[in-house]
Each structure stands twice: as structure tokens, then as C-alpha cells.
Amino acid sequence: MATKLPKVPVVVVGMGWAGGIVASELTKAGISVVGLERGKDRNSSDYMMAHDELRYQHREELMQDLSKETITSRNNEKMRALPMRDYGTFIVGDGVGGAGSHWNGQTYRFLPYDFEIKTMTEERYGADKISPDMPLQNWGITYDEIEPYYDTFEKMAGISGETVEGFGYGPRSNPYPTGPMLKTPIMELFETATKNLGYSPYILPSGNLSEAYENPDGISRAACQYCAYCENFGCEYGAKADPAVTVIPVAKQTGNLDLRTHSNVTEILNDGVKATGVLYVDTITGEEFEQPAEVVVVASYVFNNVRLLLNSGLGRPYNSADQTGSIGKNYCYQVSSASSMMFFEGKEFNLYGGAGALGIEIPDFVGDAFDHSELNFLHGAGIRVTQYGNRPIANNVVPAGTPAWGAEFKAASIKYANSFFPVKSQGASMPHRYNYLDLDPEYKDAYGKPLLRMTFDYTEQDRELVKYISKVTHKIAEEIGADIIQTNEEQGAFNVNKDTNTHNTGGVIMGADPETSAVNSYLQMWDAENVFVVGASAFPHNSAFNPTVTLGALSYRAAEGIQRFLKEGGSLV
Fold first, then answer.
1. pLDDT above 90 covers what percent of the chain?
2. Which of 98, 107, 117, 204 is close enough to 93 for a disulfide, judged by CB 3.0 to 4.6 Å?
3. Are 368 and 331 in contact (CB under 8 A)?
4. Which of 102, 372, 432, 503 is catalytic?
């Protein structure tokens, strides 16, 4: 029997970027918030001297325990889904800060085209350009409406960058709070080559501070030291924007946040019309608690948001047969295969130094910046060179055809240790009717709840995108002048243990129509008005860019909507 606790105004499930922003904004407004996080508490002191590659990179210290909860995966409906036993493609965060603690820090805004993609595509190319199996839709919000929230996130996080004009990029109300990061030799090579080809390179927008910065909430952070320990690591300098060192401390300081760690929410309690609270388990003692609340904010990772709603019977599950229902619909990933690896003879770079968002990109092939009339795909890809920093373990990149072990492998590993880097691409992911999330009928977690099942494979849209973009990355590699160029020109089948991108979106998508979306533009559920589902699960498709700043902007808008709901009640649109 669960212990029933006193009712509170707001309970937030998950304390990463989405939950942290919502908690910060509500508590600053004087609203009492209970924040439930299944992992442990963290702050900047926990990251001191944490340059332990084995512990954090290879043993996933900051990640969800897959022996207790994971996902199952299959490529199509004819296959049996199997549990993901080891982290490959997805690295789901655990503990205060969530994925916002171990992310790299790349913070691109989405394009105006993204938010009105269906309308803009049909206006330029006609309705026939969109496949019947591609449930493409507008987001129910425009770039101009979300821009102030982008600005708020960037000021809070101290984003470093330079403004891009043209190419379908939206206007900015303010420049980035801090200037761009340093330009390394490999970035200079990319810059020269792409300018020679007529492209327009710019330094990546970065959550790794280029200079010391104090944000509007009074949080001061130091500049990036380019130590290379970003992805999968917390930042010991505080230079990387992280909810555990930005928004969550602000919420704690108000005295209005009751943060409960080691608290795993297993169900949203509801009467079929509204939520009444949540059920959670203390992961240390095994005790079960019922937390009643006026408003429930679901702010966990994409997979966990969808799974919690499905296990709670909230919303209408998506049905691929007739494309009805919304929970689980439009699961999207990202297309990152069209890259060209370059190896150099007699030329070395200091690749051991770097940062998670240190890099340079061209905007010429994103969104609808180029004509798609004769192309069999929509949207495009960012093409870039990044320097994350090559840490010593498991970093032996050698040319194709080199033996996988032995003296020749060792010699090649040493020879090219500082003499290789790729021209990368990151492509948009369009929705497909047979790419979705639902509950697995067979596998359950440690609490007896069904696991989430992912049905996903790359589509013809993705394969055509890779064919096109790979020609561009190869041309840039040739212009850079690499001695060996290995270009991946084909998109293979999706493999949950090998594909290398963690940008999952969709499943609880936003829109203006309750028939085709799960939440409105404030991320308020159509089917339960006191439930707000905040995170990248709201994206109806995934752009060519990293999702975090858009997730953050929508979180600020959701916090605004929650305050309105507590005062006025009812649907916010």
C-alpha cells in the first residue's frame, strides 16, 4: 500500500533541462514544486577531478541502469523486438541534470521552416512532395513566437556563438551572450576549403563558455578550458551549461523546491479526465508513495515520457494501421551517415584538446536553403568539422583495410593518432507512419511495468539524403587536401547498438489539432489539461540540428503556460 502524501501545487517528473527550467521558473514565481528524480543529486563539486574516461565514457557512470530499465528495439513490425542490453546509440541520463549533464553543448536554433514545414513545403513544391507515409505537420507555433524563449535560454546558459544570416535562419532579437569559441587548425582548414567552394562557414553555437559569464539569475561560470571531457562527463569547471549548475540551484535557493532524489515515478494517477498525482518508488528503500498534485509535469527523457503516459493510460496510443492516436507517434532520430573520414601523411594536429561544442559548420544544406524540386527528400543536413578532443582509451582510428589487431594495427594507430578527422554531417529526420513507440507486450522493468518498444528504421527519404550529402562532404574533403578519403555514401539499416546519435524526438508531439497531436503549443495535453509533457518528445520531426535549445525554449514557454493554468484553469489555446 502506497503512503499518501499531502497535495502540492505542482509535481515535476525528471530534473534535467526540461524539469529544471520549469522548476526554476515556477519557484521564482512563488509556486511550491516537488521535483522527483530517480537518480542521485549532483552539483559542480561532484565533477571535480572527474577526468576518468573508463568510469564515465565506457562504464556510463551518469547513465540509466539498463539492467533495471531499458527499451526494446526492432526495425519493422514483422520483427520481434529485443531489449537494448548495452549502451550504443542511446545514452539516457540518470540523476539530477539528466542528459543535460553529459551533453556536448551544441545549441543550434531550429529554422522557421521547421515550425511550419508542412505549409512551407506545400507552398513551394506542392502537396505531392510529401509522401502519404510521411505524417509531416506544423508545430502549432511559429519561429517568431518561440524566438523570445530561445533568447531566454541562451542568456541563462551563456551560449557562445556568432549570428548566421540568410539560408533560412530566423532573425534574432539579441546576439549570443558570449562570443564564439576558439578556432583550431582543423577548423581553419575547413573554413578555407568551404569558402573556396562558395559556402559560408560559421563557428558552432556552444554551451561551453568562451569566456567567464554571469547569467540573469546571478549564476557565474568560468570559461571553457578545452580539456576534452564533455560528452558523457560533467564539467568540473562549470563552463558547460548544465541544469545542475544553472537552473536547479536557482530553484533550490528560492526555498520553494522540494527535490526528492532516488524517486522513480511509475504511474501518473488519473481519473480519465485529469491527473490526480503520481505514484513513485523510493529506489533505496523500495517504499511506494502517492504524491497528489494540482499539476503534473512530465519532463523526463523522450522514451520515459512516452512510456509513462502509455503505462498510465493517458492519451490515445498511436496505431500505425490507421494512423490514429498520438502517444508514440512520429518518433524521429537523426541521419548522420554521410561523412568523409580524412587521413593525412606527415601532418599532425593537437587533437587531444577540444570541447563538446568546438567546431565549424556550413548552413548551405539545411532546411529548404537549397532547391529540392528534383530531389527525392526534404530538409537537409548540417556539414561540419568538430574537435571534441581524442581521449586515449578506445580511440584507434585507422584507414580501412588495416588489420584489426597486431603490429600493423599498432603502427597505423600511432601514425594517425593526430593525423585524422572527419567532415561530418547531421541530417534531419522526417516522420514515417511505421516509425513509432509503443509498449512491449513481453518485456517488463524491475517494477513489473512494460518496457517501451521502439519500431524504427531508416527510410527512403533518409537514404536519398545520405546519397546527396555524402557528395558534398567528399568534395570538401578533397578541397581540404587529405591524402586518404573514405566517404560513406549509403545509409544502411538502423542498428540500436552501433548508430551514433543520441538525438531522439517525438512520441508526444505538439500541434494545433487534437486529432493529430498530443499537446498544444504550451505542451499541455489535449486529453488531460493539468498534465504538461515537456521535452523533445514534443517535436513532430527532428531538424538537422541538436535538439537542446529548442527543448529549452519550449520548456520556458511551458512554465509560462503552467502559471497561467494555475490561475485560470482550462485549455491554454
1. 88
2. 98
3. no
4. 503
